[in-house]
Predict the 3D structure of the following.
Amino acid sequence: MVRSRAATTRRQPAASQSNSAQSTPIRSASGKAARRQPPETHIELRIWLRLFGIATKIERSLAQRLRREFKTSMSRFDLLSQLHRSDCGLSMSELSAKVMITNGAITGLVDKLAAEGLVRRQSHPADRRAMLVKLTTHGRRNFLKMADRHEDWVIELLGKLPTPLKRGLHDHLAAAKHELEANKH
């Protein structure tokens, strides 16, 4: 996901000035009066910005809570989560792809987690040049404590929404995901 909105955002008129039934007259290159397209023309961009904004707010809140309660980062939590889902362990490249950070950053993160006894490296059974990273028993216990609190926080953040809205969001987002996956280019 692209994190920068600067190149794609457009200044929206203030709510008191906005009227979707009207459009603002502008001048075309020829000098003739032209009509600006109403904001609904770019609904796809507005949807993406709204989804990005909501996801960012939730992620920031969760990251702050992880830092405050467990003195850990979202990247560390994500890495431990990926390892928790994989009984066989993951290679450094697989971790990098799943956590969406560079190979160099993954190496540093794994080094720190290994020093704390949360993960261990072992030789890859099929490729002696590669290493697998696995959770230790201590790492699994530590992650499960964080995951339980993480779940509580997500429920707290989204639990305030009315149930019909939550169900509708879930269903519509699932349908959008299905459409996007079916129409990959």
Observations:
- The longest strand covers residues 119-123.
- Helices lie at 43-70, 74-85, 92-99, 103-115, 137-158, 163-182.
